[in-house]
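User: 3-dehydroshikimate dehydratase. Structure?
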Amino acid sequence: MIPSIATVCVSGTLQEKLEAIAAAGFTAVEIFEIDLIAFPGSPAEVKRICGDLGLAIVTCQPFRDFEGMPDGRRQRVFDRAERKFDLLQELGSDLLFVCSNTSPEALSGIGRLAADFTELGERAGRRGLKVGYEALAWGRHVFDYRDAWEIVRRANRPEVGIVLDSFHVLSRRLDLSTIGTIPREKIAMVQMADAPLLQMDYLSWSRHWRCLPGQGELDLSGFMRALVATGYDGVLSLEIFNDRFRAGSARSVALDGHRSLIWLLDETARTIGQPIPGAVPMPAPGPVEAVEFIEFAVSEVERPGFERLLRTLGFARTGRHRSKDVDLWQQHDIRIVLNSEDDGFAHSYQITHGTSVCALALRVPDAQAATARAEALLDVPHAGAVGPGELDIPAVRGLGGSLIYFIDRASALGRWSEVDFEATGESAAGVGLTGVDHVSQSMQYEEMLTWLLFYSSLFDTRKAPSQAVLDPGGVVQSQVIESGLDGQTGHGLRLILNGSQSHRTLSARFVTDFFGSGVQHIAFATNDIVDTVQKLVANGLAMLPIPENYYDDLEARSELAPADIAVMKALNILYDADAGGSFRQAYTQTLDGGLFLEIVQRDGYAGYGAPNAGIRLAAQARLARPMTVPAPNRG
Ligand SMILES: O=C(O)c1ccc(O)c(O)c1
Ligand SMILES: [Mg+2]
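Assistant: Predicted structure:
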């Protein structure tokens, strides 16, 4: 199949859109009619620009309100079609894309509609052109692809085929089996879009909430299975109407688009167990077994303070890097790398963002395979400086220019801590922290879907529906992504992506103050939160104060013993429970740079304490300095 994208998916002027689309590696494009009409040059000029960029124009769509018009209007409709044929020929495109009639004037009657397409096909044929017919989910009479197919079948012209648009088919939950019965030469083209499952009218859902394959919840895999059964190998074109994409970066949305199609074809080939024409060969997605280490970029000046914090948290310095100004700190299964080099990646990162997480190392079954998969998915590889005898740990660029390292236990990479670090012999009793429970990353609202796709295409993941969390400064959208939680090979990965449209939420303020997106919060696991928090407090760590009202309410609504609640209250521990078990969590106060830490005790519980998030955010807002500075210009 040939990847393509509609200009409506990305922001900018037509010229900017086309450049972004070509830069993302596409060779085919659908021009949305509005983009052409708003363009100040001729269609021939658009053809020339596309030609220079190596883009074939699949179609210029849509052609609206064509079929079933009453006799008095019918001639006019064909005149319009001829004008559109002229336009397509000027553009060097050969497909007239008709979407089903939404006009209140439109008449029904399958014979009448088919006759209109027979005539349109004859007219197209005379010019060497083709016609495709798409059923809009909100069409006046035709809103089901099976009816569109019946009309195309009865029109019985070699020039006339059906357009299948995954959104219109899947949003209406139509039975997919008819797709497999359509002869491949009768499929004029295919449009792909995903979407979150929402309760709203089809038109609003389609015009604002579509998203790229893999970012939503529609059964794209079922749709693709049915499509592959037809033998179709033509254009697969993204058509995404999405408010965030219209406000986002054209280049990054176009690149995400290409990535999403590469992912979709790979995923489909895997589920049906046979190769698909046009699919890029790549290793299968694997689970993330654990967060192997978290790397902080810390300046020489801030380093002593950061080291004191690590000791307070119960960490010991267990290794010194053999050639670099880098230390390894450890507590049980948590490894923290402190990088204070005065050049290289971490240094640049520190200069931009201050003390912060510059890399996450993820343990996977096969680091080489993960790297190859990342490359196939157009992720950006990163190569750092490597000293003699040191390991060259494969990495790709992640959120906000930070890095994701791939480590495995099967290769020499598994011995990174011994190869690259000299043991200090130090050890610490710790405070009972056992591993990394989860990591949250804050980002611009517009880039949340980018990073959702990044993680979910690269690894074998499970994503939860996006949730709205209330912050005193506005609403924060929160997206959970999980991998490798079967417990067989480590803690797995739990990630939370946060973004908000308000500038006043904690998450948005982090992005502003931090000069970009990054890790805002790390949650460490303990088996005994009471003991751990007592030790932390004894070490002098300030925990986030939780109001008394919370504990009064907890007493009223839970079965917990008052003595248990009293202990939680004394230590500012929050509580939640689900069908699987209970959850206790406590937060540190926000550290310099906006990072904060969480301690969690998970006893069979699967979530993240969502009911407590509002309480926590209010507590954090009370402690935060008032926001007076406007957002810096990051141009
Ligand atoms: O929203 C619309 O009008 C519209 C137009 C063209 C399409 O291909 C489509 O799927 C929707
Ligand atoms: Mg469409």
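The first strand starts at residue 2 and ends at 6. Residues 435-623 form a domain with the 2,3-Dihydroxybiphenyl 1,2-Dioxygenase; domain 1 fold (CATH 3.10.180.10).
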